[in-house]
Specification:
The chain is mostly helical and about 350 residues long. Helix content is about 70%, strand content about 0%.
């Protein structure tokens, strides 16, 4: 990951960016994020969503700092040295991550855990994977195109247009924590459904009108207000896509298998990220540079994950139930977790393993 950022400073052709940032950076990011998120599950059970939400706020804080830092460095030291400085910052952060991230359980007896396609035989896991795919399909569209939209709309200065993404990430940091905090109390899937619909409503109610107004209305004040409001509300609502989706996957498996399930799920979900941004770019080009089509695209995919997540609650007899540790919609109460029963067989527990009864 660090090498990707440093080498990006010497890239000058499209294929070089594709290899360095796309392949090298993508592989490095996945190798860092996946075990880091899975390690949280070793230490938290009932409060796993809140813990994951707090941990993932670091990503959005970086999304606040780095755009502003690069905007300043580009003017002072140029493109190449700006990316190198960012790479050295990454080096410090990655060293700290390797020193601080720990696991509570020993590796499985077979050592290396290979991909297990048999996981997809579980209908609930397949539904959650499809839902997460659609989430990622539209998640990075605003992150990628919001700044360019702000520049093209003429509603704000170029400096503030780049700061809009920092506003978006600031709101996302709140959303990542808040969704996890609420999910441990009202259900992981329940809160995910609510935040997904907020993503849809904000895209339809704020970005779409702003994009339409920018085409024929010379009054930039309304466009400015709609765009900034969208950055705040969409950023906050979409924060759950990062922090809560892995926890929803973890509901379906034992903690020992959390990393494997998460990795298998996001191996498929990665193709949503891969295709979503190019599709959005093609929509903008097809509309002659207008952004109303991409606003509809961002909103249109949101009902799919919500309904697929909701299907995990529906039983054949017509009653509704929450997945493990989720809100029981039928009775309106939250089930109590038996904290005196260890969920880890003695055969794989480390001598220093904390009993499940003491997990927060």
């Amino acid at each position: 990951m660090m090498a990707s950022i440093i080498l990006m400073g010497i890239c000058s052709q499209y294929w070089q960016f594709l290899v360095v940032f796309g392949i090298l950076g993508g592989a490095g990011t996945s190798l860092i994020v996946t075990p880091a998120v899975a390690a949280i599950g070793h230490f938290f059970l009932a409060k796993r969503a809140n813990a994951t939400g707090i941990a993932t706020t670091g990503g959005s804080i970086g999304g606040i700092i780095f755009p502003l830092m690069l905007e300043s460095l580009f003017l002072k030291v140029g493109w190449a040295w700006a990316t190198r400085i960012q790479g050295f910052v990454f080096l410090v952060l990655l060293v700290l991550a390797n020193l601080l991230i720990r696991v509570r359980l020993r590796p499985l007896p077979q050592g290396i855990v290979l991909p297990n396609p048999k996981i997809f035989r579980q209908p609930a896991f397949v539904l959650v994977t499809i839902a997460a795919y659609f989430l990622e399909w539209g998640l990075f569209v605003p992150v990628t195109y919001l700044t360019s939209y702000c520049l093209d709309s003429g509603a704000m200065s170029p400096t503030f247009a780049f700061q809009v993404i920092a506003i978006y990430n600031a709101a996302s940091s709140v959303g990542r924590w808040a969704s996890g905090f609420l999910a441990d109390r009202f259900g992981r899937y329940n809160i995910m459904i609510v935040t997904v619909f907020f993503c849809m409503i904000s895209s339809i109610g704020l970005w779409l009108p702003a994009a339409v107004f920018s085409e024929w209305d010379s009054n930039h004040a309304a466009n400015f207000g709609l765009t900034v409001s969208y950055s705040v509300l969409m950023g906050m609502a979409s924060g759950s896509n990062i922090s809560l989706a892995p926890v929803c996957v973890g509901v379906l498996c034992d903690t020992r298998e959390y990393g494997q399930y998460y990795a298998m799920c996001y191996t498929i979900v990665a193709f949503g990220t891969l295709t979503g941004v190019p599709i959005a770019g093609a929509i903008i080009e097809a509309n002659g540079g207008a952004y109303w089509g991409v606003a509809i695209f961002t909103a249109a995919h949101q009902p799919f994950p919500a309904f697929r997540e909701a299907s995990n609650f529906f039983k054949a007899d017509g009653s509704w139930y929450g997945a493990r540790y989720s809100l029981i919609l039928k009775s309106g109460t939250v089930p109590q977790i038996n904290r005196n029963v260890s969920i880890y067989p003695a055969a794989i527990r480390s001598p220093n393993t904390t009993p499940a009864s003491s997990l927060p």
